[in-house]
Amino acid sequence: MDTLKELLVPKAFNKYSHFAVVSIWFVMGATFLGIFIEVENTEPRFDFRCGGAKTENIDLVRGKCFRQYMKQYNKYGVPIYGFVIINFCLIAAVYAVYSQIVKNTVNVLSSSTRNGDPESQSGDQENKNSKGKQLFIAYCCQLSTRLVLGVLSMILQTQLLYPLEFSYTFDCYLPSRTNQPRNSSDATQNSAFHECSNQRSEKKTFWMNAILVVNGIFVAGILIETIYIMSRACIEKKFMKNSKFLETHLNPSHGKSHQKPQRQEERIEQVSQQLRVPENCSTRGELHLEPQRQDDVVQPQPHEREHRPTQVELHSEPQRQDDVASREREHRATQIESHQEPQRQDDVFPLQPRDEIESHQEPQKPNRRSGHDDVPLTQREPEQLQNSNLQRFIAKTKEIIQEDAQNLFELQSPFLGNPGEQTAVKHLTLDQIYTNLTVINDRDTYDFTEDRQEQLKVYPRSRKGESQPKGLEDLLTDKSKKVLVVGRPGIGKTLCCIKLLRDWAFDDVFKATSNAETHFDAAFFVKFRRFNSTDVLNLRELLIQSEHFPPDHLDDKVWKYILQHPKRVIILFDGFDEFKHDAKIVQSPPRPNVEQKMPLRILYHCLVHGKLLKDASIVTTTRPTALPSIRRLPFDKICEILGFSTEQIEEYVYKFTGDDKQAGETLWRHINSNMNLLSLCYIPMNSFIVCSSLFQILQFESSAGVTLPSKLTEIYNIAVKVFYFRHTKEFRDTDFTREHFESDELSLDVEEKFEKLGRVAFEGIKEGKLILEGNEVRGMEDSALFHRLPDRKTSALKHERQFCFIHLTMQEFFAARHLANNTSETELRNFVSENIKNGKWQLVFQFLAGLMEDKVQLPSEIITDLLPVKTEMKESADYNEEWTENEDKMVTCWPTEDERDLAHLAEAINNNNCQLRTLNLAFNDISDIGAQHLAEAINNNNCQLRTLNLAFNDISHIGAQHLAEAINNNNCQLRMLNLSFNNISDIGAQHLAEAINNNNNCQLHTLNLAFNDISHIGAQHLAEAINDNNCQLRMLNLEENNISDIGAQHLAEAINNNNCQLRTLNLTANNISDIGAQHLAKAINNNNCQLRTLNLSHNKNITKAGRRHVHNLLSKSQSKCELIL
């Protein structure tokens, strides 16, 4: 909608014309398009009927007769929906082109007239814009173009392309061989008559007439408007001028907004006339202007400048300042300062908006407007910035922000190597990586369920149904000037503030335009952690010490401007929780002075209360832990940053990789398939850490041809330290090296704190508590790894503090760390054996297995020894690589039916000593992440797995891609893969197809993709694969999918090729009709086809006639293929 509004500028149109285009024309166009697309799809199949044909040939007769019908009623073959698109889009394009052509002119005129009559504004460009006729000419051109296109469309519709009425009945004549395809010897001499009917004809006629009526109404409206403006232009020549045309025709209400400044100018002229003295007056009463030096001009007192920066000075003899002041009080509505010598620009004091007048005594043109002496105009708002000191201050501030706030320390890779080392690190810029955050009003609450998967979904939830400001600029309005932004550590509070500053510095937000509700001339960024709570300073000193402040630029004139125009000032206070000593806000003086020095906490209190810079915008960011200290401050709005939704995480990942699209797809696929990582990335800092870690792994292992692994423990081991060091107060300004993050050695102080965190995390999981009470985290409340929740009300007068880890997986990692560091081997064996079937410890044990790899005293066999070792012998046709209809094969399955629940843990652990040949994981809840773990296992050269059954799980195209990458690896020895009853779709089929035809690496012989919602698109990819001489596939099961005749045709072309080695193809219960069956029958009738079994049973669209035709075709062939219909 914003793009449409940008293309069709409302000010460029008459309000009725704009309403007609946006609200009617586009709606009608979309309606007609939908109707005729539906007609095009359904008419030949359901609405066109023919009699006189045999049952087996009725579809063929109907098709041929419909083609005759279309040739008669649509002789040029232009589909009606195509005509609708052209008809409505051409008119819309004319609107858009015209709008873009006149946009600049309209904006300039709107900006000028905002402060007065556009024709009276100074500047050649403004005069040219207001007095020219370009706007009138362009508007007339677009009217005439639309008129011609509308008439032309009506002529084409009625005279050339389509009839006025579509007939219901139609007589169709076909050669008689249509009815008797086999036995007629004189088929070419006789014709058969068929009486056909089109049940859609009346509806088509009605809607075609509706298009004609709509076009006619719009043409009539255009013609009326054209006559009106041309007649008015003939009567009133000024009507064609840009300003007049904009004011009276395009935007009549626009002129009303100019009446107030025009009346002010009229009052100025009346006061000016009262001050003038006729030339023939007596010498005694004559007032004359004497040249004065600038130094002689009486300057106003400071208290007078606040309200009347410039004054009237007319005299016939030297006057006292008291007389001048008396004259001013007599004419308070307007003050005029007149002197013959021009003042230096530096000495001109900034004016109050729209209230005062300044006139320089320089040569003026007589009779400029009304024939009287020239009267100075009301100073427009942008001219207040003419003061050179102020301009230099603003320009320098923006320049510093543009330079300093691009390459931030927070966005430097944690894996930066030493100088001279060629490391594949990824440094980011703010503009490159910044992604809008999800922000809601007030505080958010969390409802943690007992289901772990649902608990993970709590974090990166999409908030489409709630208010989602795109940035902090959306929070600031005239009614909301004091804003508090709450967010947990790493959620992006500081980056939000810096992004707001950069946008202001580049004039992307808060710019002084004609329609801007809020704009700022000065912006200050104050970080609380830079100040000590005992510091005593005044407001001016505080602003000078702000971030990105230009040195030596806050001179007296700029300072005075800030004090007089606080509405144009924004101050960003970042990190109140980092204020040293955690000083609570105390009561401030009732009426403080701007020069008065006071502690920062009191100074901040005065700013939020409006006792200093009353109308300034104040934005404060803080963690929830510091909220009690500022609970009494009167904020206009309180918001919480929730972080990223799933969609925003995806956007962040692709921004991270930049132009490397393949790396972006790999990283996003990996994160999206792992719910633990995806959920963790809702915090922007975690997204940065995870992407940086995975990018490092990808760059290192891609050179060795290894796919991206799921090394959760390694990633979390680094992520925890990076997050903790970068968001803990005492380490915020410390430059840590790569070795600090990669090493397992921590300082004694940090190790002690991690031990406390581990103990709290372990006890919380053990007791099933994700929300912790205040006494449980005593002494660790300010930890970067905790998030303070809204207090819980325990009684009418009591509240209890609540905390939680910033993410569930962080708690699970610290619990695993606690087990690894504080339990003996015997204790750990007992604990794991007792809880290995408990789902809440699943990820804890996975982290534990990873942590124990580096611990000699705790071997990883503690967990792997507990995997199920039982197997069972059973007969099943599912595992026969040379699958036929009624043949079973004896296989060994693992795990057994009674220990199937242990497969959840097995899928997450890669045991290099595993000697299994067949793995049956059917009927589990395996998702894409499980498929990824299995893919990594079968990718290992120690894995001896030959058969993998993943039927009846929850695997999508993402999991299919992981498996495809695995079987494409030369280490994989898999022969049979069963993915039936999943949801891999066409995309998953494409990934698998690319794998099975790749360079003889894939040894897969049997692929079962039944019940996977595969259409003709997926069938085409698979057909291209089995047609390749690299493909070793012998059996392909595509039962119960959505493959149509097009897909059947692609498969037929594949098995018709001598490269195809397929022996069994199962297409049971698809959407194949007689046409597809004939394609396949012709293919297996070919000598090149090596197929032995083709199953087409339960395809309801194959008719009896189609079956007979296929059997007749195969009865004359030498094919050895068994066809099941």
Automatic annotation (TrEMBL):
Residues 270-283 have a biased composition (Polar residues). Residues 285-383 have a biased composition (Basic and acidic residues). The chain crosses the membrane at residues 20-39, 76-98, 206-230. Residues 248-387 are annotated as: Disordered. InterPro entries: Connexin_N_sf, Leu-rich_rpt, LRR_dom_sf, NACHT_NTPase, NLR, P-loop_NTPase. It comes from the Eukaryota. GO terms for molecular function: ATP binding. Residues 481-626 form the NACHT domain. Keywords: ATP-binding, Leucine-rich repeat, Membrane, Nucleotide-binding, Repeat, Transmembrane, Transmembrane helix. This is NACHT domain-containing protein. It comes from Pocillopora damicornis. The lineage of its organism: Eukaryota, Metazoa, Cnidaria, Anthozoa, Hexacorallia.
